[in-house]
Amino acid sequence: MKMIYISLLSIASTVLPIALFFYGSLFASASNSSETTIKACVDNEDQTDNTVDPISGGSSSSNTFTYPKVGDSITSFLNPNLFQDPETIHNIKQQLRAGKPVMIHNAFQPEYAEAMYQDLSCTEGAFELHEYAHEQDDFSCYHYNIYDLQKYTPLMNATLELFNSTVTKEFAAELSGRRCGGQTWPAASWYKPGSHSLPHSDWADQRTVAYVWHLTKGWKHGWGGHLYWMSETSFPFVPPSFNTLVLFSVNTRTQHMVTSVNHLAGDVKRLTINGWWEDNGWLPSFEDGVAQFAEGYDDWLDYFLEDSARLLELTADQSFRLGQLQAECAAGGYYDEIRCNKLHYVYETLHEGSYWYNEIHYVEL
Hints:
The protein is of the alpha+beta class. It has 8 helices and 14 strands. It has helices at residues 80-83, 86-97, 110-121, 154-164, 166-176, 300-306, 316-330, 337-350, and strands at 6-8, 35-36, 65-66, 102-105, 128-134, 139-146, 187-191, 196-200, 207-215, 227-229, 237-238, 242-249, 256-258, 270-278. The strands form 2 sheets. Strands 1, 4, 5, 6, 7, 8, 9, 10, 11, 12, 13 and 14 form a 12-stranded antiparallel sheet that branches. Strand 10 (227-229) and strand 11 form a beta hairpin. Helix 6 (300-306) crosses helix 8.
């Protein structure tokens, strides 16, 4: 019996700033898909047949793959040897809820992984350069992506629907303990030679849980392109690989980076499907009851006061809104002194060094 490994990576903080990655495009729904038999990809930028079948040794295969349909759960396409094992699910939950990223080898059913790999390999012309560099936040990235939904293949559209289905988002919430009811936009990434991403946390907007599905074959470690986690004591990394899923709960501590791809990689493609499940849009408000965030509390502020570690559950947008409420209290715009005192304590705790980045202490002569 083939052994399947799950690696649990330690989470860490870093002194470097947060990057903001943006998807821009409107949601497009996938067409109903059926069982499809398709041909091997031809290495040609003009290739227009975006439906592909698994191949072996460069020749066509007669295997078929059934595309995800609208409303399907991601659990129907995950590796059953892993995700139907109660102990494995328990371990993944435990690590994610403790704030630790999880790396899962052989995560999806092999037919799905192979079909997606071939699909991306056949769609070179759809990838567009995405680069960012700004002196104020010391961040830069340089890689190629498919963000334009008009350029999504049928399989990519079906995958978008799969990751966006209600049952999939409920599964992600159950694993992570985070709110995942918002929209998600799984996109394709291709790191060519020279591509990289400097350290960043993904903590932006309403993001709660990040996913990176690695779909790279034949990669050598010396070619770079590793996903590194920034730790005070060590730097664990995920090398490019095939059918490996990385999950982590997004917060201010989830600093990571992708090292530059060496030119020696040549035509070998570092491919991923990546994105974030997001909160369904809840923002702190003096009018909202806690039922909109966590059950069992008369006031959502009490949820955070009971355990300050829960502040890491706040998204970037929610934290920003918390600051606006604090300013409203300070300006006398809200007159409930008890709640303003609670808010002040939560806000100050949020900004302590344990929840935000510690700055480097410089010594100059």
